[in-house]
């Protein structure tokens, strides 16, 4: 019934040149393509350096070895502060992770083992399966992909179907591409490319919701191509923003008494 109803509406729109269109199609035809710089300026700036995202939800990871799903709670603050706890059905968290630009700490309560080392992509991926740098994953989890603006970078804008596409280039190499809604300038997709031109990872943003007057994505789909293929679907069931920065331990786990400490540098 629902598909039939949408089909009728689309047919009417084609015949009458007005009416309901699919959500992915721009309601107002794009008559003028702004410059890439103008488009980037209009992307909503919703996260200040003091804002802390606190969220809970579920992450489902699919790899060649199989699929697994975990409930989680996280706190994130730009540019690169993160706290993650994975939560079993019963009992205490089975993984606690804190990371900043220089240090990552992980505590596995069921092993009573505390890991500490540098915040590298390899170290982060060994516990999260997400082979993405911390300075990129934090903005992604907060719904705002990083846009590097340097004099050495060039920016090009295109129309791709109903969306603005922005290519960010270093020399002749495309570093990143963004797909942006002409209405509202929300980023719906972000792709980071390898130096050889291949796709490193792509993030799709959807299910947007209003929090404190700003719009945040409630769902993320992350597809990683290297060093091995995987997909992670993040669904937030609760989100809130605060400026509570007084908890000194929030992004810096302390070593529990009696825990075995392993350095992973």
Q: What's the helix and strand layout?
A:
Blueprint: H1 2-16, H2 36-42, E1 52-63, E2 66-77, E3 81-87, E4 95-99, E5 103-108, E6 113-118, H3 121-128, H4 134-141, E7 153-160, E8 163-170, E9 173-180, E10 187-193, E11 199-211, E12 214-224, E13 230-242, E14 260-263
Parallel strand pairs: 6-14
Antiparallel strand pairs: 1-2, 1-13, 2-3, 3-4, 4-5, 5-6, 7-8, 8-9, 9-10, 10-11, 11-12, 12-13
Structure description:
By secondary structure, the protein is mostly beta strands. It has helices at 2-16, 36-42, 121-128, 134-141; strands at residues 52-63, 66-77, 81-87, 95-99, 103-108, 113-118, 153-160, 163-170, 173-180, 187-193, 199-211, 214-224, 230-242, 260-263. The protein has a single domain, classed as outer membrane lipoprotein receptor (LolB), chain A (Clam). Helix content is 14%, strand content 45%. It is globular, with a radius of gyration of 21 Å. It starts with a helix and ends with a strand. The model is unreliable at 1-29 (pLDDT under 50).
For the biggest β-sheet, the strand order reads 7-8-9-10-11-12-13-1-2-3-4-5-6-14
Q: Could you describe the largest sheet, including whether it forms a barrel? A: 14 strands, mixed
Q: What is the radius of gyration?
A: 21 Å
The residue ranges in which pLDDT falls below 50 over 5 or more consecutive positions are 1-29
Number of discrete domains = 1
Helix fraction bin: 10-25%
Name the helix and strand elements from N-terminus to C-terminus, one letter apiece: HHEEEEEEHHEEEEEEEE
Look at the structure and name the CATH superfamily: Lipoprotein localisation LolA/LolB/LppX
Assign the CATH architecture.
Answer: Clam
